[in-house]
Hints:
The structure is a single chain. Helix content is about 80%, strand content about 0%. By secondary structure, the protein is mainly alpha-helical.
Amino acid sequence: MRGTTAPVSDAGRMAVTGGAVMAAATLTNGLAYLVPMLGARHLTAADLGALATVQALVAIAGVAGAGLQTAVAVHRARHPHTPTVRVTLTTAAVTAGILVAAIPLIVTGLHLPIAVVALLVGMTLPVVLAAGSLGELQGDQRFLRLAVGMGVLAVGRYAGVIGGLALGAGLVGSLLAGLVCSYVALPILRLVAGPAAGVLGAPPTGGRAAVGSTLGLRQVSTASSATLAMLVASYADLILARQLLTPAESGAYSVGTVLTKGALWAPQVVTVLALPRMARLDGRTRRAAWAVVGACGAALVLGSALAGGLAFRLAGGQDYAAFGRYAPFFAATGAFYALAFVLINAQIASGARWPSVPLWAAAGGLVLVAVFLVPHTFAGIMWTATAAAAAAALTLAVVVRASARRRSPPAGPTRHTVAPPDLAGRVS
């Protein structure tokens, strides 16, 4: 009886934790979308443009936080209870230093007021600091607490700005409210994380850091580079369409990329759950995650093929329904990048030195082919983007498989295997 109930129990925990993380990610994205919607109703055109620019810059600067969370999660999965305070504070300090040094360039190049840029720097730091706690929760496989922590951070990042806009506080007042809420969220996140995690946390009683288990900026920069490569590769075709197509075609192409982003980020929760076990070199988890994400992508491509017109209407309105025949190709681009996202995280988890090279190569190839080789048409850029995404996923699959073979111990009578923990992990 135990053999039949254990898998069911594991599947139930996986569904609960996966659903919680998905809900937290949905909350984050929903609040992020609400900010420009309110800004369009309460700000002047100039201030709305400044708000959109600030959001874009925070997202770019947040790459450091995403890289930190990934690096900390991998580290904690391998070395439970080891503190990550130093690398978290160092990453935040380096990020702040880069932003402060870039203030004159941002002010003059993007025509933003100095007060707005100063608030931008201040709002970025709590995002990076919070990433240390979230990474520890992820690495410790405390996924329900991770989901709550993600929700706390999302509310802290956006609630103040949303409230300020709704109350008519203007651009600077709304950003100032967002700054205050972001820092208020940090101690709340610390309470959610508990004594085993957090920027100011320490290993629990009896916990002891493993010898040689120091986490440094190299691992963080490696993970951050991979995150940045993912953003650049997935947005490159949209930027090219803006430059190479007519305004009308560019607008239609931007609607199609909504499907791309949906297919790319929808199965992201799978990678969040799988990363700690992949850090322990569990090949079965890697293959299972790749298969689940591939199945999600195939379903989305099939759905887009059957209801492409509806997909374009939902994304952009009735005027774009005629482009529905292209929907499967945009969904396929996102699906390929979703597979690449799983594989590049598998490379980070295995300690690869340059895991993002295939993605950077794909982005570079996309730009070269789109600009110099293919016709500057809607279909030309779309096909090039799909081919680049497929090439990135295929290359990473080959690299990951080769790396796994090199790490595999030789088969023999003395070989022992240890069952890995369940994918859902602890649910506290």
